Amino acid sequence: MGRSTGKKLPLLAVLLAVLLLLPSAAMAAVAKTIDASRSQHLDLPDVLVGPESVAFDAHGGGPYVSISDGRVLKYGGEVDGWSTFAYSPSYAKNGCDAFSELPSVATESSCGRPLGLRFHNKSGNLYVADAYMGLMRVGPNGGEAKVLVKEAGGTPLRFTNGVDIDQVTGNVYFTDSSTTYTRAQHQMVTTTGDSTGRIMRYDPKTKRVTVLQSGVTYPNGIAISADRTHLIVALTGPCKLMRYWIRGPKANTSEIFADLPGYPDNVRPDGKGGYWVALHREKYELPFGLDRHLVAIRIGAEGEKLQEMKGPKDVRPTEAVEREDGKIYLGSVELSYVSIVNP
Ligand SMILES: *[C@@H]1O[C@H](CO)[C@@H](O)[C@H](O)[C@H]1NC(C)=O
Ligand SMILES: *[C@@H]1O[C@H](CO)[C@@H](O)[C@H](O)[C@H]1NC(C)=O
Predict the structure, then answer these.
(1) Which range is least confidently modeled, 2-11, 317-326, 328-337?
(2) Which residue range or ranges hold the Strictosidine synthase conserved region domain (predicted)?
(3) Which of 55, 118, 311, 338 is 20 to 30 A from 74 via CA?
(4) Closest Cα to residue 319, out of 187, 221, 190?
(5) Cβ contact 167:150 at 8 Å
């Protein structure tokens, strides 16, 4: 399939053009679209894939990435390269270091599949949302992580996914995408419209976990607002962002924050009061046509669409992290590298 198909079927070409233009037409074009195809690749070591989440420690060290064989790796710069930083107790117990070359679907339920990563700056602790193990934490020197939360409100976590931290209180906010389906069955969460996802808080002082909202449709990434009054949660199937208030008069309530032109994964603050939302796929994406699609969108503090990032169709990022120097790091569950986009 390619451009010649368009020539033979002009109607289809018109339809395609309309569909491709729809999402951007609905956006007040404020900032220039970023082209992610001009990016630098930070390759993982041989055979390793799927750096889903990208994190930096309080000293700017990293990136740290969560990969498909169950480990969290740390990049120590050009000379040191990548090294193992953390893993679950099950990874160690099951001798998973022998299985790095097996496809992850064969190993992830016993070796773990870390997804969201976030450091608590003051303590240096890294919190890990592991799809199979639950919420875990590891100290600043890494090693075997401790499982903190495996169930909430009497129901086991089944698909732990996104995590963020209130850097002042140390409270940890995280999502369980479904209590029905595991990560390996993530397509089912979308196709069935499963609405058994939950948003939770873990208080490290009391070690208590609280379910803030249940019955949520595919909650995925989560980020606390710059003023710490609310959480922004990506709802993958519905292509929306939800706002959940944790402080103020609307505390304990939620509302839709933004409609998205694609299926969101992780949400990360952009350092300017807004967020970068990684998009796995456009909402109306066709399997043929131009080899470019939306890979991320920048959303403002009030839910307004500020900027798009486009890239090749084989790039389907799971996280976009903007650093103080303006570089944007893209994580992915499929690729064998982290992309660094320098807009
Ligand atoms: C925590 O550290 C990260 C990574 O260096 C930094 O971007 C962020 O601004 C820090 N947050 C706070 C609240 O100090
Ligand atoms: C929110 O819920 C908490 C805990 O259930 C409660 O203490 C607090 O008063 C509630 N806040 C509001 C504004 O309803």
Answers:
(1) 2-11
(2) 161-248
(3) 311
(4) 221
(5) no
Tell which atom from ligand 2 comes closest to the C-alpha of 252. Answer: 1
Ligand 2 in contact with 251 (CB < 6 A)? yes
Residue 215 has pLDDT above 60, yes or no: yes
Q: Where does the chain have alpha helices with state H?
A: 3-8, 10-25, 89-93, 104-111, 186-191
Would you state the structure tokens that stand for residue 17, as one six-digit string?
């053009």
Ligand 2: does its nearest atom lie under 6 Å from the Cβ of 83? no
Greatest Cα pair distance, the chain, in angstroms, is 66
| Closest CA relative to residue 118, chosen from 231, 217, 37 | 231
**Cα-based distances in Å from 49 to 43, 73, 100:** 9, 11, 10
Pick the residue whose CA is nearest to atom 3 on ligand 1: 58
Could you tell me which residues are beta bridge partners of residue 155? Answer: 152
Cα(328)–Cα(36) distance, integer angstroms? 9
- Are the C-beta atoms of residues 43 and 336 closer than 8 Å to each other? yes
For residue 306, give its domain range: 3-341
Q: Which phi and psi angles does 25 have, rounded to 5°?
A: -65, -30
Residue 184 Cα to ligand 2 middle (Å): 36
* Across 166-171, average pLDDT: 98
Show the tokens assigned to 41. 């690749």
> Hey, is 136 helix, strand or coil?
strand
CATH number of the domain bearing residue 263: 2.120.10.30
Number of domains in the chain: 1
Nearest ligand by distance to the CA of 119: 1
As beta bridge partners, residue 231 has 224, 244
Distance 246 CA to ligand 2 centre (A): 9
Taking the centre of ligand 1 as the mean of its atom positions, its distance from the CA of residue 184, in whole angstroms, is 32
* Among the listed residues 266, 247, 314, the one whose alpha carbon sits nearest the alpha carbon of residue 37: 314
Backbone angles phi, psi at 23, to 5 degrees: -60, -40
Q: Which residue has the higher pLDDT, 63 or 6?
A: 63
